[in-house]
Request: fold
Amino acid sequence: MVTNKAARDTEPARRPVTALITVLGATGAVGRPLAAELASRAATNGWRLRFVGRDLSRLRTLAERFDAEWWRVSELSLHELEPALSGSSVVVNLVGPFAATAQVVSSAALAEEGCHYIDAANEYAAVAAVLARDAEARDRAVTLMPAVGFGTVATEGLAASVAEWLTASATEALAGAHKAGVVSGGAAAHQPRTRRRGGAADGHDGESRGGAADGGERVTRVNVAMFPHSAARSRGASTSVVGVLADGGAAVESGRLTRFALGHRATRLVGPSGPTTLIPAATGDLAAIPATLGARFVTSSVGLALPRLGAATALPLISAAMRSRLLRRLVDARAVDSAPKTGEFVSYSWARVAGESGDAREAWLRAGEGYAFTVHALAAALERLLAPGSTAGALTATAAFGPEFLRGLPGVSIHSTLADALVGAPDADADADAAKADADAPA
Reply:
């Protein structure tokens, strides 16, 4: 192991240092732009940066460029991570596949006094494992925040926004019924629950993040789909995709995770590129959405340009092949960060939310390039996480900061129709719903 301080010719004017942010995987496809973004915010926030990785030459170059510390590790083990995280206020885990790294890195964070944890995972196993450590995090008065990437923030956050609007509509309808004398006193209704205790979908209820409110409707069913468009693909993302394929299909039913063959239970949706087959998969949303919104039926899908029959026939075979240890080792050995492409990149997500009455609403999100979205989400979450009064426990960004977190990210717009999302047209209905939700939110 080697550690050093990057050379400093001049010391920029800055606030007194109040936090040390350690980025694990800083030289990767997300790590490099995140390092630049954090460095641009460091002086005004009083941050000090430390970059951790395996490639000594790349670490030193990156650290010298952004006036940061660097630390080399040869493997992700508690033994090597303990000194790498020494003195850290928060560790950002960008090393995939997260199903293999989230547990050990979050354990290292919990072992360091006062150290928060944040990652960009989107595998069910990784997100569920971190959310299950809620009691440990609260005991140590720190926050463990998985899934701060496009795959979950853009889907869970959109679903939470739609749930707010569904609740607002139900509340107005209930108020109108009371006024008209249709409903007598004592009718029970519920706000959508933003739950921050209990973690992943396992049949156990969690504790509400927000206070109880009269009116509204309980969220029962959520369907989300993601359509990311990225300029490049990282090595970690490639190995994570292989892991998701190997896990097969999955959904949350009656509050419990149900598994089935990949490609089964597919549905059709007109997506950004035309008619698309939605393939239910074991993504982080299956852990996050039940914990945040209380929905007992959740499906998270990726869109593929395959007919349903073709998906049901071919994908189970691909999934079975990805479970071969030999093949997965081969993919892992050959996976590399791809060279970034040029051009305009637009990403989308879709969410449909239904309440216990059967009423449902849906919306589309439009955003920019997928990795840029992740960088902005991580930087924004770190600013909130390191601010005074942050909530201890294991929870997602949407659970911690509300759906307005997503709506406040650069380049994000929400639309009630795909047609409006495709052209980025202002959506009066969605804007009004968002404004009302923000106005009604507790101070």
Notes: The chain has a mean pLDDT of 83. Residues 28 and 255 are 36 Å apart (CA to CA). The chain has 16 helices and 17 strands.
